[in-house]
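#struct-pred

JT: dropping the chains for the assembly here, can someone run the whole complex?
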Amino acid sequence: MILIALPLAILWFGGVILALLDGTIRWVGWLAVGILASALGATVLLAREVLDHGTQEMRLGGWDAGIGIALRVDALGIVFALLSLTVLLCALSFETLEGIGARIFPSLTLFMALGLTGIFFTGDAFNFYVFFEISMIAAYVMASYGETPRQFRAAFLFIVVNLLGSVLFLIAIAGIYHTTGWLDMEKIRAQMPLVAENPAILTATLIFVAFSIKLGLFPFHFWLPAVYTGTRPAVAAILSGALANIGSYGILRFGADLFPRELKEGATVLIVLGTASIVYGGIQAVARHTPNEVLAYSAIGQVGYILIAIAIGGKAGYAAAILYTVLNALNKTLLFLSVNLRGWVIGSAFAIGAFSVAGVPPVAGFLGKLGLFEVAVDNDRPWFVILIFAGGALSFVYMFELYRRRFWMPGEGEGTLRSQQVLIAVIAVAIVVLGLAPEPLLHLTRHAASVLPERLP
Amino acid sequence: MTIVFSAAVAILFGAGAYLVLKRDLIRLIAGMVLIGNAANLFIMSAALRRGSAAVIPFDGTFSDPVVQSMTLTAIVISFSITALMLALTYRVYGSHDSMDIVQLSLAEEEQSELEEQDDDARDVAALDDADDAEAIRERGAGADRRYDASPPAGDGVNGGDT
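RK: done, full complex below.
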């Protein structure tokens, strides 16, 4: 199935070519947008194939099964790939309209898209690590985009913490290889139940910590506000809308798919950390004043819901987690892009994003909360229902406090480009439309959850 | 053999962790390099079999080639990230005249204080208290190169936004 390699090839060659060009020139920026859009187009073609005919597979270099590295795309991977490419496309178009300030930025965005797509398409654990590093290195450089002293500090913190996470993940991969004898995910899935309990739990814990750092979950969150506060809006949108998807995808793929037994044993830990994340993120967000900081703490709070949905598990739990990831990424993209601008179009778009975070119908965020609510009620978890409402109330408070500060107060009248207003309005309308006509999205997330195994008894 | 490997991994990782907690950025990077190499050694020790070099023709038992290729990839990646970190340290040094973590975090605190004050000033200004806002802005600007952690100058007017 050669179509699998197509988005990767487009992004790879595009990234290399753009690295040689000066990204501050406007047409180079639009060229990058074009390349990203064509990769998204190829992914959509692939998505139709995957949704109609099930998992697609391709062996690189024509090696035999079990020797060659496999690219394997299932519905879960394709949902995350579509989401990440869409977010990157929005952020790159936004930055190109604004005027790109660093020559390397378009190329970095394409390399990050390559890394993310590769992560979601690969069927090999070590290959996962390599693509993971490709996207992280692009993110490390991006964090210093803007080149103010503060961004250098933030980038340094970002590298040190996330590099530690990557090293932990690498150690876990070596552990998987030693205990199962395979790097291919299908083989690992088959071998995992035979592995002794202690090494399996250790490996699973390392993987969980590595992905929690990417997600910015409560005890591993400390790098996140500093990085998000310092960066430019487009970079913050990319980090929280695209890069953070690695965390939820990683926990779903490795936890729910490859380590179901360990996920079940660790469910209590996930629930406790998720709850702490929701409460801590919400309260900190209420207390903060700078817009990016509020949104950063809001991001910490939102991942708590995803984690609890995964911990409760089952098809419905996984579907709710995927749906919440998709909506959260779209919300964060809209909010980070619009919060530093001015004008009534931006204000209304921001209000839509705020409603979506708080989970008010008919905006799409309501679907995410509804999905969680169903999971909580079906699994007889009253405390989770309470948590959803308390967390929702907190997010309502901090989002509208932020809205009041940014859009009700007279402030410096920074002129916003008409074209940027149109872009942000398009994202906002998309979020409303997703809320009004949710069937396709719900179908897609249920399909994605159906590739994960049923919860263990 | 396993015990030798685990001891080496533990010592490398421990020394790396010790260096990461130091104040100096270069030492911190050296610590990250050590931790990365501890991971590389761990991959090597995760080999499924040991023996002669895995080159055809094999004689008897040959060592596991998969871990070797994994380690090679990991070494290349950690090398490139080290280069990136050193370049970034140079830029940090260029913009702060310091490679001391404590100095950097003081600069960070100062920045967030300034932003809080700016924010308060905007709120106060919106309440038609323009003189106050002006005063707060001036005091904020005065705090530009202050590296000691004295209380924020805008504290007195925090009531303005309630």
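JT: nice. Chain B has two domains: 2-99, 103-161. Chain B is about 70% helix and 0% strand.
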